[in-house]
């Protein structure tokens, strides 16, 4: 028989797949002897069975009853026992943390009778009725699907009637009245009563948590975080402990280190006389954890010791949820905590230094995405002016955008291409879509562990929270800054998540400390040193070489400073832009051979100069120069504009410009409906006489020049868009002829490897043949993705990719992250068959995927020799190539 439930003693941290992260870590804490309230876990397997069949798996109910009995024996009380009830919490917990995305029901076991028993044993009627009120509300929302706003309204009306600024001012009588109101609300809305049977409450709550796996916001979160949809959630059922039993009780969240900066030392928020949920929701402002040391020194010391035990045991930063019930500390949750990119690098470096983890483990704990974030610019402190607001620096970085006051508006404006900042009094899990759409999040309430802070940090989104000096009026869609300035919706503000400050208007940006370090080696702070160490270690373990895609000496120089080991792609067409466009136009339009030769001859010295500059900057390193690739019509004037100009002249009874008429004829001659599949790449070289000759001559002469100047030029010549070996053979013959010719002319032998791009499925499928003519392959995964899927790379992202992402056709755009299954398979085939034909074949990738962390891991596994990416991605690629090799 399948087993669906586990008690804490039979679980461990390695069982997160089955017990969820929360359950597995509770089990682990129990094993470590930390004070964990007893309970049991219903497995993800039960959830999966429920969600796939839509029915409760056979035997689940009996198993829950059996584990509940055991819990009742351990605690010496029955669930909902009238005179002294055992109460339990029912919480979701998936394998991967999804903060606030799924459901929780607390205080299960309370009913009209047991609430009186609880009042008696706790000595507080107010507490008992407040707990019952919470249960009816949570149950109504979560299990019975009632609109949360209805409960909030009833509460707000009561507070107004009692002139109570917060719920702590409501007394037992008020809360008992509220329970009745809530129950009536449930009856009216759901057509049935709030169940009085504790067993039914438990059972229904477990199923509701299962269902919440598929809630809209949970799905959205998973898509964003690339969490598979079929994992399901576990459910933890645990004896309730109460943080709202008076001033000697409370709840808090702690981190074993500061999750924003990585600095060591216990860190977090504490809320006296409150349940855990109140801390995370930011409903009341928490105090810094340090204050607990004065409020309850014994519990504080214990918490600090447990935190240390956990950090040593997990060998990483842990976050902890805890509750103090009348002076007794209980640990309710722990996990390896989310952190900012700064903190990830700083903590990894420190733990390596402390000898707690190896350098390899340290590298595994940082990421290329994090490094990319550290390379983003910061605000220029000299140009910030007076702040609009100060708050908690919850998630670092600099963001500028128009203030918006709800998620729908954030999504709408972002879809129209506007940058926005989501401003809320506090966020709830329902704000997720707005947070995704926004550049930054600003809240008026809540600490570093509030929902806004935790979620923003996880997403790498800039966040300032708990800005108490602003007044947010969501209804009126505006907020008032500390100096009284009123910010209406749409006003541009700048949010500094590192300093916790907000400014009016756009603040100019400057290079970050990490960027300055990468550019110049300046070691400004400990985070930068940590980045340096991680990169050094990555360099020492990686097998993949990292090159850059660069077309100018400036880009090449930057790439080299960033650690590039050569140029993997120089797109020569980029050298024909600007004023040289006219020369290209002349070449295309030339009616005679002499005319074309003249145009090509004018281009030659310019190209030679380009190549000389590149070879000089990258002296001693390979420079892969690709022959001209894009369709020629891209260099000609716009067809419609020309036609309109001619028609306008004719309509005015004038003679159209003769040059325009000639141009239009040529443009019409060259027009293609589908230029990306048209006259480009090697095809161009084979049909436009003299083009390859000119380019190769320019390369060869640059090599000679550099050689004579005492350099070590290492040019490689790459032929684009080859689909058949015959194409490459023809192009290569011409290349070799020109190289030999220049060698003879100058007396300097020119040796350049000749290779090809693999960017058409046919090239990949006939790679064995193509390798006969190619000394290297460079995968053009942009075109290879386009031609494998039949997606136009210029159009699809706007046209339907967002619908495809929503529908789950793919989890990420295949133009960003390599589609391993399809495009990846072609890469694999080409590498294998190419190497079989030519064992010393060099292989690399120069499509955008060369700088994408996930794709880099694939290229490592596929045994490529190098990845090539834009200069700014070079450090990211070094780091991820190292991580891939671990
Ligand atoms: C490619 O297709 O992946 C490539 C690098 O070439 P381009 O983007 O210039 O077409
Ligand atoms: Mg291409």
TrEMBL record:
Active-site residue list: 451 (tele-phosphohistidine intermediate), 846 (proton donor)
One Gene Ontology molecular-function label: kinase activity
EC number: 2.7.9.1
Enzyme class (EC, first level): transferase
Residues of the PEP-utilising enzyme mobile domain: 418-500
Assigned keywords, A-Z: ATP-binding, Kinase, Magnesium, Metal-binding, Nucleotide-binding, Pyruvate, Transferase
Reactions catalysed according to its record: pyruvate + phosphate + ATP = phosphoenolpyruvate + AMP + diphosphate + H(+)
Domain of life assignment: Bacteria
PEP-utilising enzyme C-terminal domain location: 536-880
Positions contributing to Mg(2+) binding: 759, 783
Cofactors required: Mg(2+)
Family: Belongs to the PEP-utilizing enzyme family.
Official protein name in the record: Pyruvate, phosphate dikinase
